[in-house]
Specification:
Layout lengths: L8 E5 L7 H8 L10 E6 L1 H10 L6 E4 L10 E5 L14 H20 L4 E4 L4 H6 L7 H9 L4 E5 L4 E4 L15 H19 L5 E5 L14 H15 L3 E6 L1 H4 L2 H4 L4 E4 L2 H12 L4 E5 L5 E4 L16 H25 L1 H10 L12
Parallel strand pairs: 1-2, 1-5, 2-4, 3-4, 5-12, 7-10, 8-9, 8-10
Antiparallel strand pairs: 6-7, 6-11, 11-12
């Protein structure tokens, strides 16, 4: 079946249920026509969702199942991982809410790897509490890298602004020693390929930020730009990748500047995420690029301060769902086209790309 007509199954992990995770899931799925677009498969607890939909006065019916293979098209499916009652304490991470966050994530990820769901959307987790219970990673990205045995890239996306970060959840004191020429090159290559396959951008233009204030100011404020980042950009450009920079981060995030590029590679977490969340907070989506499977999430956390108050905005979570669906379709179509070189050449020609079609065999 063509990817355009395939009813995509969206796996959903519930995150910490004492935060806003279940609330934004319920709100994102409350439209009675939502299943016309995809089939939700939530990994959690029927009793938990029944309780919280009463709290938030949301009239939604669920199809409770024991295995994701049983998911029914046209229904909101919940894989009932926990059959016992759950104790909801809004605003407070507990051992129970943390354990369900881990169980939900692991079950949803296994379903993704087994092909029982097509994409995965993850609700916010509490990293500190999960680590206390034996979770080995400081976030989703490291977890998926280990599960899929491939390096991923934290990539925050909207239609107009896309920002990846070179280093993820590490202390600021360790950022400089975790940056290298080869790492930047590998990440930019992965970002370039992601833009081509997942976002249908034929020749992406990528801006790379400097590490130091004013991008090092010619070596007056650090040498990383001169010794690492500039050589990486030059070698990438020589490969045919349209990488530019390094740009000073403090002046880059102005519309007339960032809109000239298809994506940005920042050197560290807050350098990229702080301006991104300021510019695109409600619509931003966190996408783990470079992996064989598609995973997205909203660009916010558990928001314990508003949990249970019916104040959470579901827009970022809804954007995460539909971004995952769009990426799945784009990637599937790309894979279909690249399996058929003639069809790929015809499409390129139709898009105005100057490529000669192969001659027919005699």
């Amino acid at each position: 079946m063509s990817s355009k007509h395939h009813k995509i199954k969206v796996g959903i992990s519930v995150g910490d249920f004492n935060g806003i995770g279940v609330e934004i899931i319920l709100k994102a799925l409350q439209d009675k026509n939502i299943t016309d677009f995809f089939t939700p498969v939530i990994f959690g607890s029927g009793k938990l969702f029944s309780y919280q939909k009463n709290v938030f006065k949301i009239q939604t019916n669920f199809n409770y199942i024991q295995h994701p293979k049983e998911a029914a098209i046209g229904k909101l499916n919940i894989v009932n991982l926990w059959k016992d009652n759950v104790n909801v304490e809004f605003g407070i991470p507990t051992e129970e809410s943390t354990k369900m966050a881990i169980d939900s994530l692991e079950a949803a990820t296994n379903a993704l790897m087994n092909g029982d769901v097509d994409v995965l959307v993850t609700a916010p987790i509490n990293k500190d509490e999960m680590i206390k219970q034996g979770f080995k990673h400081t976030g989703h990205t490291g977890y998926f890298e280990e599960k899929f045995n491939k390096k991923g890239l934290m990539f925050l996306v909207t239609e107009k602004l896309k920002v990846a970060v070179s280093t993820h959840h590490i202390p600021v004191s360790e950022i400089a020693k975790n940056i290298s020429k080869n790492k930047i090159k590998d990440q930019t290559r992965a970002l370039n390929q992601c833009l081509i396959e997942d976002f249908c951008i034929q020749k992406p233009k990528i801006a790379i930020l400097g590490l130091n204030p004013h991008a090092g100011d010619g070596g007056a404020i650090g040498n990383e730009e001169i010794e690492i980042i500039e050589p990486a950009i030059k070698e990438l450009f020589d490969e045919g990748i349209l990488a530019f920079g390094p740009y000073p981060a403090d002046s880059f995030f102005q519309p007339e500047k960032y809109s000239s590029f298809d994506a940005v590679l920042a050197m560290y977490h807050d350098q990229g995420l702080a301006p991104f969340k300021t510019i695109a907070y409600e619509e931003g989506v966190n996408y783990t690029a470079g992996l064989p499977f598609i995973r997205t999430s909203p660009d916010h956390g558990t928001a314990y301060d508003i949990a249970g108050k019916n104040m959470a905005d579901e827009q970022s979570f809804s954007e995460a769902i539909f971004t995952a669906i769009e990426i799945f379709r784009n990637r599937t179509e790309y894979q279909e086209l690249t399996k058929n070189p003639l069809k790929s050449k015809v499409l390129a020609n139709d898009n105005g790309i100057d490529e000669d079609l192969p001659e027919e065999n005699e």
